[in-house]
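Final report, closing paragraph on structural work. Over the funding period we assembled a curated collection of sequence-structure pairs, and we close with a single example.
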Amino acid sequence: MSVRRSLVTLLALTCWIGPVSAQSPPLSGDYLGRLGPLRLTLHLKSVEGALSGALDSVDQGAYAIPCADFKLQGDNLSFTVPSVHGTWTGTVSTDAGTLTGTWSQGTPMPLTFKRDTYVPAEKPSPIDAAWLGTLKPGTEDELRVQFTFRSDRDSKEYCTGDSPDQGAWGIECGEVHWSPPQLSFEVPAIKGHFSGKLSEDGHELVGLWTQGNALPLTLTRQAKPLLQPPPPKFTYGPAIAPVDAERIQAVLTQDFAAALQSGPLSRKGIGAAVGVLKNGVTRVFTLGDAKVDSIFEIGSITKTFTGLILAQMTVQGRVRLDEPVRALLPPGTVSKPDGPEITLLDLVTQHSGLPRLPDNLTPANPRNPYADYTALKLYEFLARHGVARPADASFGYSNLGVGLLGQVLANRDGTTYPTLLAEQVTTPLHLEDTVVSLSTTQRARFISGHAPNGHAAEPWDLDALAGAGAVRSTASDMLRYLEAQLHPEALPMAAGGEADTLSAAITMSHELRAEAGPGMRIAFAWLYQEKRSEYWHNGGTGGYSSYAFFNPKGDYAGVVLVNRAPGPEGFTDLLGQHVSQRLAGEPAIVSGD
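Its predicted structure, as stored:
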């Protein structure tokens, strides 16, 4: 799932830009932009003669997507965002106050960034500094948190938060209230709140951190803040002849040699399983400490399974795509709205207008945040929020929306999501290792997850929102799933079972139903990159990340599963994009020195 942290559920998009000459304009700072209705913030820093940056998408939740291939020549600047198949190209104004350019994901759109005009106070306030503390959510768990405060010339306080141990930096605070010696602030992205008091000597902020549960938190003034480490360098290598399945491992390990030696997979206990299919030939191999039969959490790729369940039940006549979600909820759960209401199709195409997460998600265990979010809590949220569909509902990625879809489809069938998944998809496709709950023997092959910094992470268990990210699988099973996507017509028929409708359902699930951003469309949860004619989805949980794609035109597919949560460099997405590009014979992402 795209929100996937025990403490921090919002990550900045981290970019690496490379060396900058002494004559380059002073680009360090924050830049604000708008892409259609989407608000964006581009953070740029200069570190040892090189620029690094982070791009926040406030409204759409495009987190942990890496940038690559930055070029700054004179006043010309360009960079790519490989995971969303996007490119920004433009110019830097003489005073470096404006970045004027074009964003392209197939269809070019103007995108201009202007420098944030924040003016610092002439005299810093007593709390203007970096403050470091440690949260202890469990008896053995410790998470460092850092908050940095600054005040402007109007005495307004600003704050950002970091979770260094989870690789999350630059999280915006809100509602900062400083009335000496009392301080309080919110962290809206993770529904966190701090309230405390500055000590008499001015060296400590002593108070409580509330994020579901209340925990004591003492923040200590730092002479120097902890800084985000520079991400690995990635760029584009030249195109080579299209690579077949037999050679992809050798090509990948050569192109990613530097990253494999010093990146996430170089750490003990972390590994990747990679599956490739091209022209009917399959290969599965591993990198790092994974095994070929290791089981991983696949996170939000689960959404494509939920989309296929919807297609199956539609073909079988059990539901209609235009059916209101209200009709599949327990009677009396939510009132009928006066105008248009959310349908099943709205949920699977991410056009429901529902928020990314429900506002009553307050986990007892932040390291397993969805485990106690029950159907009752989901229905309580819907009763308050309603099911009216905004007239202007555009693409808005919502774990809540697809989780709700999985729950109501199970309601219609009078069962649970895991049972429905098995009946409609995994059993007909013989995906024996694709499950929500692991058997005893499968548990022995369930590779341990890790946070971005390499620390151990708990598995995620999902209840009412299982349809958004609860599935575990292997690379081999995922390849079988992707092979069915490439060739649904080749699936064998059964005698009256769900397999009889599976071919038609898969074909239906590929139908492009709505826009999903410039150059991008969406089918039944699968995102579709128009320029490359490719379907894809990625995923992430507290300890795992994943990327899957299939290209019917090129007759190839691939999957990358890693037992590490998505870090700021987006390593799993980069691996997945590289495999796809090399199979297609295109210029490909490679790791630098």
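The chain has twelve helices and 32 strands. The domain at 13-115 is CATH 2.40.128 (Lipocalin). We thank the funder for supporting this effort.
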